[in-house]
Amino acid sequence: MAIKYVPEPFRIKMVEPLTMMTRAEREEAIKRADYNMFRLKGSECYIDLLTDSGTNAMSDKQWAGIMQGDEAYAGASSYYRFVDAAKDIFGYGFIQPVHQGRAAEKVLFPTFLSQGKYAISNMFFDTTRAHVILAGARPIDCCCEEGKNPSLRAKFKGNMDVEKMEEIIKEKGAENIGLVVMTITNNSAGGQPVSMKNMREVSEVCKKYNIPLNIDAARYAENSYFVKRDEEECKDMTIKEIVKKMFSYADMCTMSAKKDTIVNMGGMIGIKDPESPLILKIKANCISYEGFYTYGGLNGRDLEALAIGLYEGIDENYLKYRNGQMEYLASRLDDAGIAYQAPIGGHGPFIDAAQIYPHIPYYEFPGQVLAIELYKEAGIRTCDIGSYMLGNDPDTGKQLRSDNEFTRLAIPRRVYTQSHIDIMADALIEVRDHAKEIRHGYKITWEPPILRHFQASLAPVEN
Ligand code: F0G
Question: How far is the CA of 23 from the centre of ligand 1 (A)?
Answer without folding.
Answer: 31
